[in-house]
Design brief:
The complex is a heterodimer of chains A (168) and B (579).
Chain A (H helix, E strand, L loop, with lengths): L1 E9 L4 H11 L6 E6 L5 E9 L2 H13 L3 E6 L5 E12 L5 H8 L5 E5 L3 E8 L1 H11 L4 E6 L3 E4 L13
Antiparallel strand pairs in A: 1-3, 1-4, 2-3, 5-7, 5-8, 5-9, 6-7
Chain B lengths: L6 H6 L8 E3 H11 L4 E4 L6 H7 L5 E4 L3 H15 L3 E5 L3 H4 L2 H9 L4 E7 L15 H4 L6 E4 L6 H13 L5 E7 H5 L1 E3 L19 H13 L3 E5 L1 H6 L2 H11 L3 E3 L24 H9 L2 E5 L5 H4 L11 E6 L13 E4 L2 H9 L8 H13 L13 H12 L4 E4 L3 H9 L8 E2 L10 H11 L5 E6 H7 L3 H6 L5 E6 L4 H10 L15 H8 L2 E5 L2 H13 L4 E6 L9 E2 L8 E2 L6
Parallel strand pairs in B: 2-3, 2-4, 4-5, 5-7, 6-7, 9-10, 9-11, 11-12, 12-13, 14-15, 14-16, 16-17, 17-19, 18-19
Antiparallel strand pairs in B: 1-8, 20-21
Classes of the chains: A alpha+beta (168), B alpha/beta (579).
Bound molecules: thiamine diphosphate.
GO molecular function, one term (chain B): acetolactate synthase activity
GO biological process, one term (chain B): isoleucine biosynthetic process
Pathway (chain B): Amino-acid biosynthesis; L-isoleucine biosynthesis; L-isoleucine from 2-oxobutanoate: step 1/4; Amino-acid biosynthesis; L-valine biosynthesis; L-valine from pyruvate: step 1/4
């Protein structure tokens, strides 16, 4: 089963290497890792998408915890969580297909962020499955390049008081 | 021998005033002395020239090994003998990479080490500079933690943290990599009194609810069994374990790492389990209804990786300081995360006695009636006989280190250890070349003890260069080479699993170990039969300095009992013979 693990780590050199090394060495799957600042100076938040049975997931969390630079580990599957990924895709586009592409991306709330003579760059955010669907629809036009950030996520209503589900 | 030499720095000590400046290497040395380090093991080189310059004044005892691997295993042996972190220093590049095997060995057996390496100056890092190696990167999977010090001001905190991390919780090796410019940089110095690491707070107190559940399980058990491991030794919990085992009325089996954690002479002890374990221990594991694992990790040399045949009728209790060990290899019915000593202290209070009289009788009967056996000989020297002789002549009052292979298993089988930290072996990594340098470290830690390095003719040749050290500094280690003129354990596997196709295991052309030892200035003897063996060993023990005895033993001897890889504990190949 797919799990999203949120890990609060010291913002230290090599901390990404430590985490990646551990996951690789212990033979855990990694679908994606994203890392950036957190709400606290000096700490970064890593969001790891991984999969495995219950024992494996327990091991992933416990082994991560053993790293000295890891402050907190949270399995977001145990919470309602918001999961997002950013996608940039350059897709082939002629004057004849530009409108069509615009029509495809609109329901995804994606936007065109760059226009070339024979191509468009599209930016989209959302859950992984939504971005996969968008890519499938764009494939017939010729996908030239794709960059995805990997998933980042936060539990819903984690901060006191605000527990309203807004948007998707 | 191992006293603290603090002379020159002691004179300067009141200068712990913030205004005075020291170099990074001086600060490092002061920190080590603050930590109570008695001896460091090491080898110099370009990137640690500043550190060795600071050592020059003799404030800290340093043992010059003849290979960094020797130094790190010696530091490890020191740590295993005392429980205190061993300290090793090596230069950048090849010096640092020569430590790798030693760090992995310590990591696998949870041994506290502080490994200090020099590195090239920071402006050269990443340029493939001369003798540059990314040692923090290389050792990430085999250290508990590592530091690359980028600012001399951080050095005291880093050293303080390194010692804390290495020796607390589940111990392990910690690396401190110090670029040369940091060693040379000047700074004021104050050693921190406290350490606070936000992401590192080992849980030592067991959960009371789990202790209650354990008591219930014991009250219901008819066939309890204690499986005790290296964690008992680490925690110094031998007395608590004895009290617990006696009170609940359960037999005890100790893993390779646990030997000495429970006395081998105790009526409850039934030997070592697993691949070369006793019939009693393995059958108790097969048939128990409550298995209490204490400071163990259910390694595949114990379970044989056949969980379908491992304690299948038992509720498993697992007591360990490392939460990640619980549930890693076996499903656990009662998890107890905590320091083993504290956990047993709690567990023993008001603990019920299991209804296990019949079971105790049964397991003890197995232990009596299915003992370890070998076929002794009057013509040939048998390795098992030699090990038993070492035990009998010392009354077991010795620290014994081993290398890896058949002789290691024979020591585990035929030398019943009475006390913790008296058996020193590379259990997890199985590192050949470990035993002799580890004995050097253990002897430095325990100058009064009889320290015996039981080693194979293969393993001895991996690190015997340290004979130079024991000769020059008169470290009275007694080396017992169990010389079967082959890589015995590999030969055994080739005999049993590869129809005697003996591939690259012949060591008949090894050097004359007596002459080799003498070349280093170490007294040595050779023994080819029992009479010679008794005489040689007696003289070696009586000799005040280091000694080597080359025991020329039968070369075709196998370690039994044996459980073949892939088999369950119920499929033991028993030894023959009557001894
Ligand atoms: C560094 C290292 N290399 C290889 C091995 C694999 N190995 C395990 S036991 C063994 C044979 C050891 O021979 P020897 O030292 O003579 O001891 P014996 O088994 O004969 O007692 C070997 C090669 C190992 N454990 N460690």
């Amino acid at each position: 089963m797919r799990h999203i693990i949120s890990v609060l780590v010291n913002d230290q050199p090599r901390v990404l290497a430590r985490v990646a090394n551990l996951l690789g060495r212990r033979n855990f799957n990694i679908e994606s890792i994203s890392v950036g600042e957190s709400e606290e100076p000096g700490l970064s938040r890593m969001v790891i998408v991984t999969s495995g049975d219950e024992r494996t997931m327990e091991q992933v969390q416990k082994q991560l915890h053993k790293l000295i630079d890891v402050i907190k580990v949270q399995d977001l599957n145990e919470h309602a969580a918001v999961e997002r990924e950013l996608l940039l895709v350059t897709v082939g586009a002629s004057s004849g297909t530009r409108m069509e592409i615009n029509g495809i991306i609109e329901p995804f709330r994606a936007s065109v962020v760059d226009v070339g003579p024979n191509s468009l760059m599209v930016q989209a955010t959302g859950e992984r499955s939504k971005l996969d669907a968008l890519l499938d629809l764009l494939r017939p036009y010729g996908i030239k390049e794709v960059a995805r950030t990997g998933v980042t996520a936060l539990p819903r209503g984690a901060t006191k008081g605000v527990a309203v589900h807004v948007g998707n | 021998m191992a006293q603290r030499l603090t002379m020159p720095v002691e004179e300067q000590k009141p200068t712990n005033q913030p205004q005075q400046e020291f170099t990074g290497s001086e600060i490092l040395l002061r920190c080590l002395i603050e930590e109570g380090v008695e001896v460091v093991f090491g080898y110099p080189g370009g990137a640690v020239l500043p550190i060795y310059d600071s050592l020059y004044q003799g404030a800290l005892k340093h043992l010059l090994a003849r290979h960094e691997q020797g130094a790190v295993h010696a530091a490890d042996g020191y740590a295993r003998a005392t429980g205190k972190p061993g300290v090793v220093i090596a230069t950048s590049g090849p010096g640092a990479t020569n430590l790798v095997t030693g760090m992995a060995t310590a990591q696998m057996d949870s041994i506290p080490l502080v490994c200090i390496t020099g590195n090239v100056a920071q402006n050269l890092i990443g340029t493939d500079a001369f003798q540059e190696a990314d040692i923090t990167g290389i050792t990430m999977p085999i250290t508990k933690h590592s530091y690359l010090v980028t600012d001399v001001k951080e050095l005291p905190r880093v050293v303080k943290e390194a010692f804390h991390i290495a020796s607390s919780g589940r111990p392990g090796p910690v690396l401190i990599d110090i670029p040369k410019d940091v060693s040379n940089a000047r700074s004021t110095y104050r050693y921190p009194e406290q350490v606070h690491i936000r992401g590192y707070q080992p849980k030592t107190d067991p959960h009371p609810l789990q202790i209650t559940r354990l008591h219930q399980a014991i009250a219901e058990a008819k066939k309890p069994l204690i499986l005790a491991g290296g964690g008992v030794v680490t925690a110094g919990a031998e007395q608590e374990l004895i009290a617990f085992a006696e009170k609940i009325n359960a037999p005890v089996t100790t893993t390779l790492m646990g030997l000495g954690g429970f006395p081998g002479q105790h009526a409850h002890w039934v030997g070592m389990p697993g691949m070369h374990g006793t019939y009693a221990a393995n059958h108790a594991l097969l048939e128990c209804d409550l298995l209490i694992g204490i400071g163990v990790r259910f390694d595949d040399r114990v379970t044989m990786g056949r969980l379908d045949k491992f304690a299948t009728g038992a509720k498993i209790v697992h007591i360990d300081i490392d939460p990640a060990e619980i549930g890693k290899n076996v499903d656990t019915y009662i998890p107890i995360v905590g320091d083993v000593k504290k956990s047993l202290e709690e567990a023993v209070k008001e603990v019920p006695r299991a209804r296990s009289d019949a079971w105790m009788g049964q397991v003890q009967q197995w232990y009596r009636e299915k003992p370890l056996t070998f076929k002794d000989s009057e013509e040939m020297l048998k390795p098992q006989w030699v090990i038993r002789h070492l035990y009998e002549t010392t009354g077991g009052d010795a620290v014994v280190t081993t290398d890896v292979g058949q002789h290691q298993m024979w020591v585990a089988q035929y030398f019943p250890f009475a006390r913790p930290r008296s058996f020193i072996t590379s259990g997890g990594l199985g590192t050949m070349g470990f035993g002799f340098p580890a004995a050097v470290g253990a002897q430095l830690a325990k100058p009064e003890a009889t320290v015996i390095s039981v080693t194979g003719d293969g393993g001895f040749q991996m690190t015997n260069q340290e004979l130079a050290v024991v000769a020059l500094t008169n470290i009275p280690v007694k080396v017992a080479v169990i010389n079967n003129r082959c890589l015995g354990m590999v030969r055994q596997w080739q005999e049993v699993f590869h129809s005697k196709r003996y591939s690259e295991v012949d060591l008949a052309d090894s050097p004359d170990f007596v002459k080799l030892a003498e070349a280093y200035g170490v007294k040595a003897w050779r023994a080819t039969n029992k009479e010679e063996a008794k005489e040689a060993w007696k003289e070696a023990l009586a000799h005040p300095g280091p000694a080597v005895v080359d025991f020329q033993v039968a070369s075709e001897e196998n370690v039994y009992p044996m459980v073949a890889p892939g088999s369950g504990l119920d499929e033991m190949i028993m030894g023959e013979g009557d001894e």
